[in-house]
Amino acid sequence: MKKIYRFLFAGVLALCATGCSSSLLDIENPNEVTNTTFWKSADDAKAGVNACYSFLYKEGTWMRWLSFRYDLSSDEGWSSSPWIELGDWTRFLYNNYDFYEGNKVHWEHFYVGIFRCNQVLANVPAIEMDEVQKNQLLAQASFLRALWYFQINLLWEKGTLVLEPQNADYIPKDASEQEIWDQIEKDLTFAMENLPEAWDAADLGRATKGAAKALLGKAYMQQHKYDRAKEQLQWLIDREGSLYGLLDNREDNFTDLNENNQEGIFEIQFDDQNKGGTGNDASMAFGFQRTQFYAPGGTHGTGWGDGKARRWLVDEFLKERRVDGRNDLRLYNSILYKHFGDDFPDQSKKYYANEDASQWFDEWGQDTEDCYIRKYNTSYYREREDYFARNNYRIMRYADVLLSYAECLVETGTLASDAAVYVDKVRERAGLSKLKDSRWKDCLSSKEVFIKRLQMERALELCFEGWRWADLKRWGLLDSQAGIDELKARDKDFNNFVIGKHKRMPIPTSEVEISKIDDVPQLTQNPNY
Predict the structure, then answer these.
(1) Hey, which bits of 200-296 come out as E strands?
(2) Are 74 and 472 in contact (CB under 8 A)?
(3) What's 364's DSSP letter?
(4) Handedness of CA 381, 385, 389, 394 (dihedral sign)
(5) Which range, of 21-25, 40-44, 399-403, averages the lowest pLDDT?
(6) Strands 393-397 and 520-521
(7) For 73-85, b where at least 16 C-beta lie within 10 A, e where not — what string?
(8) Which domain range does residue 368 map to?
(9) H or E stretch including 175?
(10) What are the tens digits of pLDDT across the range 509-518?
(11) Which of 120, 164, 398, 402 has the smallest CB count inside 10 Å?
(12) Handedness of CA 217, 221, 224, 227 (dihedral sign)
C-alpha cells in the first residue's frame, strides 16, 4: 500500500483584490491558513510533516533530475540528450551556473524542503498533544532535513545553514561542509532516538529508526569516521531476519510488486496517477519520471534515451559467471545492450513487446556500444514509458548496508577475510561464489586490494541507484590524477574534469547575488568558479 503520497499540505487561499476597495482589503480572510491559525492540533502537526514528505515528489529530487546528477555525472553513465546544455552538466562543462535543470532546481527544491522541515521543528513543540507522537513527528522532520542537507554537501560541499523558518528578507550566508555535516549528525541522532523501528500499514513509507541509522552511517562514512559508521550499521545487521534482510528475488527491489519489504530501508512512495504538474499546489504528479528519460525510444520503448549506461559495466558483469554457469542476472535487470538476448537466452522478456534486443538495435541503427539503463523501467508490466512510473525508488536498501559495513570493518582494522563475509551475502544472493572461491580471491590478501574489489562489487550491485558519486568522493578518486586517470579509462567525460574544481558544483549565481551586503557576497562561490 502507498500511503505517504496521498497526504498533502493545505494550500493558502488567496483573496482576489481586483476591483476591491482599500477598506475591503483590510478585512481579515477567515479562510486563509497562516502560522497564526495553523499549528494548533495534532492533525495540524501531522499535515505539516506530510508537507515535508511532499518534496520527495519534485523535479529537483529523485523524481527526475537528481538521477541525472548522480548517475550520469559518475562513471556509471552519460547523457546523450539532444538538449546540449543538459548534457554538458553531466560532462563537467558548467557555463551558466543558474541553468535550472542542471543546478538551480536542486538548490531550490532542497532548500524549500528544508524550509518546510523548519516550520515543523519550530511550531510543533508548542502544540498540546501526545509527547511520543509529537517526538515522532519532529524526528521525521529532522530526518528529512538531514536528507536534504546530505545532498547539499554531496553536490556543493557548502551551503547556507538554515535551521529556523525565514522570511523573504533572509540573506543567506556561508556554512562550511563540516558545519553542515555536524548538523546532519545532530538531526539524525535525534531522529534515530525518537523514530519507531517500524510503522503500521497506514503509515508505510515514513522514516524509521533504521533509516535514520543507515543515513547517519553514510554521513559518518563520507567523513571517514568509519568507527562511528560501523556502530550505526551494526544495529541494522543485528536485526537481519527480523526487520531487515536480502530478498530472494533481487529484482523485487525495482518493481512495485513487493514494495516496503525487508530490504528497503527508505523508499519514495511513487504511484502512476497523474494529478497534473509538480509545483507547489495540491495537484501534484506522483509518478517516478526517471524511466521516461532513461528508457530507449523506438516502436515499443517510447522513452527518450537521454541517459545511458557506460559499456564498462556490461563488461565487468560478464567477467564472472554464476555458480550454475549462467551470466549474472543483475546485468539483465540493470542494462539493455545489443547482445542482451544472446547473453540471457533463458529469460522470456527480452525487451518491450518481447522484441529481441539485437533486432531492435539493428532496426534503429543503434551503435553496438550503446547501453540503456534498464533498472527501474516498467517493461515488467507494460510496453511503454512515461512520466508516471509507479515503482518506488529505494534511496537506501539492505544490500548497501552490508557492503558499507564491510568497508567500515576493513577501514577499522578487521581482516579482509572477515569483512568479506558481508560482501559474500550480496554475491551469493546473485548466484555467485564467495570471494575466496572466485577469480577475485587475491583481494583477501590486503586491505588495499580488498577495497579496490569492494569498489567494483558496489558498482555491480548498486549501479544507477544514486550512490556512485558519493562513493567516488569518499574513496578520493576525484582528488588525485591517478584517480581521474582510472575514471577516464571508463568514462571519457572525465577528460573535462579539473581536480580541485569539479568534485563540487558551482553555487547558483543568483543565490550569490542575493546574499550581497554592500556588494560583498555573504554566500561565496565555490573555489575555481
Answers:
(1) 264-268
(2) yes
(3) T
(4) positive
(5) 21-25
(6) unpaired
(7) bbbbbbbebeeee
(8) 290-373
(9) strand 175-176
(10) 999 999 999 9
(11) 164
(12) positive
Tell me what pLDDT residue 253 has: 94
Between strands 335-336 and 371-373, the pairing is antiparallel
Reduced to 3 states, what is the DSSP secondary structure of residue 78?
A: strand
Which DSSP letter does residue 430 get?
T
Q: Total structural domains in the chain?
A: 1
Query: What residue spans of 21-68 are helical by DSSP H?
Result: 22-25, 42-53, 65-67
Any domain includes 343: yes
Distance linking the first and last C-alpha atoms of the chain: 46
The residue to which cell 525487508 is assigned: 262
Q: How far apart are CA 467 and CA 459, in angstroms?
A: 9
Q: Looking at 277-415, list the stretches that DSSP marks H as alpha helix, in order from N- to C-terminal side.
A: 290-294, 298-301, 311-317, 329-334, 340-343, 357-363, 398-411
Query: In terms of pLDDT, which residue wins out, 280 or 344?
Result: 344
How is residue 437 written as a grid cell?
572461491
DSSP strand pairing (158-159 vs 175-176): antiparallel
pLDDT tens per residue across span 347-397: 755 555 455 556 656 555 456 668 989 898 876 556 666 667 778 999 999
Q: Which residue did the predictor score with more confidence, 11 or 357?
A: 357
Residue 351 lies in a domain: yes
Separation CA 81–CA 61 (nearest Å): 19
**Number of neighbouring beta carbons within 10 Å of residue 173:** 14
- Residue indicated by cell numbers 553555487: 507
Q: Tell me if residue 367 falls in helix, strand or coil.
A: coil
Question: And the C-alpha cell for 36?
Answer: 497564526
Residue 229's Cβ-count burial label (10 Å; 0-12, 13-18, 19+) is buried
In this structure, what C-alpha cell is assigned to residue 445? 590478501
Q: Decide: 433 and 323 in contact? Cβ < 8 Å.
A: yes
Whole-number Å distance between alpha carbons of 438 and 61: 39
Encoded amino acid at 371, one letter: C
- The number of CA neighbours under 13 Å toward the Cβ of 446 is 3
Distances (CA, A) of 493 to 90, 101, 485: 8, 19, 11
CA–CA separation, 111 and 101 (whole Å): 16
Do residues 320 and 427 make contact, with C-beta atoms less than 8 angstroms apart? no
Q: Has residue 517 been placed in a domain?
A: no
Domain assignment present for residue 261? The answer is: no
Check: CB of residue 499 under 8 Å from CB of residue 478. yes
Q: At what angle do helices 398-411 and 447-462 cross, to 10 degrees?
A: 170
DSSP 103: I
Q: Which of 86, 52, 66, 106 is nearest to 511 (CA)?
A: 106
Q: 391: closest CA among 253, 203, 204, 201?
A: 253
